[in-house]
């Protein structure tokens, strides 16, 4: 499945306390789920009919079908 629903992504924590927060679809965007990862933990997640966006707080690698993003600021 592709497009709005079904795309998988991976978040790998580079430090303890990384937050992965799911945001809802629809007229009003709201937080609907939150996970806290410890250093080295990996979360595999999927966009669904309820989840339209994800916010990642902390140092982590976010791996998607479109590439990998490192949340650390590069000099």
TrEMBL record:
<dbReference type="InterPro" id="IPR000824">
    <property type="entry name" value="MtrB"/>
</dbReference>
<keyword id="KW-0805">Transcription regulation</keyword>
<keyword id="KW-0694">RNA-binding</keyword>
<feature type="domain" description="Tryptophan RNA-binding attenuator protein">
    <location>
        <begin position="5"/>
        <end position="72"/>
    </location>
</feature>
<comment type="subunit">
    <text>Oligomer of 11 identical subunits arranged in doughnut-like structure.</text>
</comment>
<dbReference type="InterPro" id="IPR016031">
    <property type="entry name" value="Trp_RNA-bd_attenuator-like_dom"/>
</dbReference>
<dbReference type="Pfam" id="PF02081">
    <property type="entry name" value="TrpBP"/>
</dbReference>
<protein>
    <recommendedName>
        <fullName>Transcription attenuation protein MtrB</fullName>
    </recommendedName>
</protein>
<dbReference type="InterPro" id="IPR023558">
    <property type="entry name" value="Trp_RNA-bd_attenuator_dom"/>
</dbReference>
<comment type="similarity">
    <text>Belongs to the MtrB family.</text>
</comment>
<keyword id="KW-0804">Transcription</keyword>
